[in-house]
Amino acid sequence: MQKKNKVLLSAVPIAACVAALGAGAPAAHAASGTTYRATLAAVPLNTPSGAASGTITVTLNGNQATISEHVSGLATKLPTDKKTLDALGIPAAFAGAPFPHVQHIHGPDAALGAGGAGTCPTSAADSNHDGLITTGEAGDNYGPILSTLSTAPGGTGDEKSADATNVKIAPGGGSFTYNRTITLSSASQAAITSGKAVIVVHGLNPANAPKASLTVPNDVGLTLPGASKPVAAIATSPALCGVLQASQMSTMPGGGVNTGFASTKSTTNTTAMAGGAAAIALGGAGVVLMRRRKHTTV
């Protein structure tokens, strides 16, 4: 496990969004709150450019964040072949389940003494040059987990919650739409308003992920319940990343938002899971990714 493993999982790029909205433009303030947007782009090495993408809009009213997100092109389902599951450290109980994509708001956290550049990782983050950017290697870019974007009821985004690594309540499937309102931690609010909040979606697609992700153990120290060894890095490495930037829009784009369960709509593309590569993944329901307490990761 690397020294940089103080932050595991997550991030989201926004270069395209900034260009469209105008970098440095003043934030829009209205009764409905201040709106921030990010374009979720492929993390270099981990996800081929253009293979997966997403967009996210966050409207902030005090500690309440109304979120609207759509993601597509990710891993769809966990493998079903027992040999493959064993090789990847995934218990048979999770075979064929929707591939869970744990996602978070990352950023610096003064209370934890943890920094974060407020950026998405580039290929330079691959410090051991194995063609894969792990959660630990990307930690210096986006920092620790500040809030979790899960489907759990209640709408809380506590960075200290076990929900941060609970794949049972993570959005799942190759494509999903996520609409909800959550309560943010003070660290998340500070990161967003300072322009250092990074959205990260984890879990690589076996059909196009780096070979190392299928053989290298995750650097979060995660072993799924019922497994005899750590799950492969493909399950925890960052797939999409984007930096939230202030938008001139002050309202959420169309579509309702609720304050209870997140609305997630998954689209499965089994052809993308072809071959042995189709093997991998975080065990879906009931699996809780154990994260390090010293510095939040994943």
Please provide a written account of the structure.
With 298 residues, this protein is of the alpha+beta class. The protein has one domain. It has 5 helices and 10 strands; from the N terminus they run H-E-E-E-H-E-H-E-E-E-H-E-H-E-E. Strands 1, 2, 3, 4, 5, 6, 7, 8, 9 and 10 form a 10-stranded mixed sheet that branches. Strand 2 and strand 3 form a beta hairpin. The longest helix is centred in the middle third of the chain and has 8 residues. The N terminus and C terminus are likely disordered.
Question: What would a concise description of this structure say?
Answer:
The protein has one domain.
* SSE topology string: HEEEHEHEEEHEHEE
The total count of strands amounts to: 10
Low-confidence parts, pLDDT < 50 over ≥5 residues?
1-31, 250-297
Number of domains: 1
Mean pLDDT, all residues: 76
Quote the beta fraction.
15-25%
Helix percentage range: 10-25%
> What is the general shape?
globular
Task: Report how far apart the termini are.
Answer: 13 Å
What is the makeup of the main sheet? 10 strands, mixed
Radius of gyration: 17 Å
Counting H and I runs of at least 4 residues, what is the number of helices? Answer: 5
The class by helix and strand makeup works out as alpha+beta
